[in-house]
C-alpha cells in the first residue's frame, strides 16, 4: 500500500494536520504513526490540563512573541490565525473563553475536549492512527518516502514531520527523531535547548516563599562576568518563586538565553529605579522607629514574607536593600532542563522550508510542522497556535 501522506507524530501539530477541513471529500489515503500508546499526551498536559490553546488579539501582534523568526512565519499565522482556530473549535462543539490576561481556553477548561474533537475530525477525514510505532528510519526514493518502524516499512508520497521537540520527554517528545533526520541529506538542525523553563540559581534563598508571585517585574539575563559581553535578554512580566527555582512568564520567556554562570537580575519594583527607591527609603526611615521590614510593607506593594527576608539578607543598610529591590542578582546554575521545559528552542532550519507551506525546498514530499521547526514562542498559547497554523498550511498544500 502506498499512502498519499504519512504523519510522524500524533502530538498537537500532527493532530491539527489530520483534522484539517482541507481533506474533506478528498479521499486521500493518510496514516499517522505515534511512538507511544496514546495521542496528544503533551496537549492534555498543557495549561495544567486546561489547555491554553491560543491567545486573543490581533494575529499581527503574535509575530513578536516568536522573537526574530516571527516575521518569517507571518504568512501562515495570518492565514490560519487565532480567529480561525477559535472558529474551528467553536464550530466543532468546543466553545472557548478568554481570560483577562488574553489566554484562550476551552470553556470546559478540559484539554480532553480539544483532543476528542481532533480525533473525531481525523476519523471523519478517513485517516488511521497506529500507536506504539516509533519511526527509526526514513529514506527518500525517486518519487516517494520509505518510513521504517521496528515492525513494518511504509511507503508514502509525502511525509509530515510532526514529532515535536525535546520537552517533557516522558510524553514521547524526546527529540529522538532529530537523530533520524540527521541521517537524511539536505536537512540541517539547529542546536536544541530548553525553552519556557524555570531558572535555577546558586544559593537560592527563597524556598520558604514558594508560591509567592510579583506583578510586572523586570528581569534581565546578563553574561557571565568572567566572559563579559552585552545583555542577553530582558523581559517585563510576572515572576514566581517556587520551592527550588525562579519561574513565571518574566523568566520563562527568556530562559532559552540563559547559560550556567550568567547573571539573572530582578527589579521587583519596576519601573522604579535604585535612585528613586533609595531616596524613598531614606525619607521614610529618617524619623521612624519601625522595623525595616514593616517600613517596606507600608511603603511598597510587596509580599510580607518577602519583605522580612529581604531585610534579613540585606539590612540594615537601606542602600543594599534599595539595590536588591531594583536589581537583585543571582548566579544562574541551570534551567530546569527538557524534563521541565514547556518548549524546545531549535529544530529544522527555517531557511530550508517554504514557510507558506512548510514543505522542504530541496526534498520533494517532506513537510516539517510545529515544534520540530526551529520556532518557539512565548508562554500564553503561542506555541499551540504555531502548531495549528503550520499544520493547516501544510495540509492545504498537500491537497493542492
Quick synopsis:
By secondary structure, the chain is of the alpha+beta class.
Structural features, described:
The chain is α+β, with helices and mostly antiparallel strands. It contains twelve helices and 20 strands. It has helices spanning 12-18, 41-45, 74-79, 82-91, 111-124, 176-181, 249-252, 274-285, 292-299, 304-314, 318-327, 382-399, and strands spanning 2-8, 30-33, 54-55, 96-98, 103-106, 128-130, 137-140, 145-148, 153-161, 193-195, 199-201, 213-222, 233-241, 246-247, 263-267, 328-335, 343-345, 353-354, 359-360, 366-368. Strands 1, 2, 6, 7, 8, 9 and 20 form a seven-stranded mixed β-sheet that branches. A hairpin with a 4-residue loop joins strand 4 (96-98) and strand 5 (103-106). The longest helix has 18 residues, at 382-399. The protein is elongated and about 85 Å long. The two termini are 22 Å apart. The model has no long low-confidence stretch (mean pLDDT 96).
Entry keywords:
6-stranded antiparallel β-sheet; alpha+beta; 400 residues; single chain; 20 strands
How do the strands and helices of this protein lay out in sequence?
Elements: E1 2-8, H1 12-18, E2 30-33, H2 41-45, E3 54-55, H3 74-79, H4 82-91, E4 96-98, E5 103-106, H5 111-124, E6 128-130, E7 137-140, E8 145-148, E9 153-161, H6 176-181, E10 193-195, E11 199-201, E12 213-222, E13 233-241, E14 246-247, H7 249-252, E15 263-267, H8 274-285, H9 292-299, H10 304-314, H11 318-327, E16 328-335, E17 343-345, E18 353-354, E19 359-360, E20 366-368, H12 382-399
Parallel strand pairs: 1-2, 1-9, 2-6, 9-20
Antiparallel strand pairs: 3-5, 4-5, 7-8, 8-9, 10-17, 11-16, 12-13, 12-15, 13-14, 15-16, 18-19
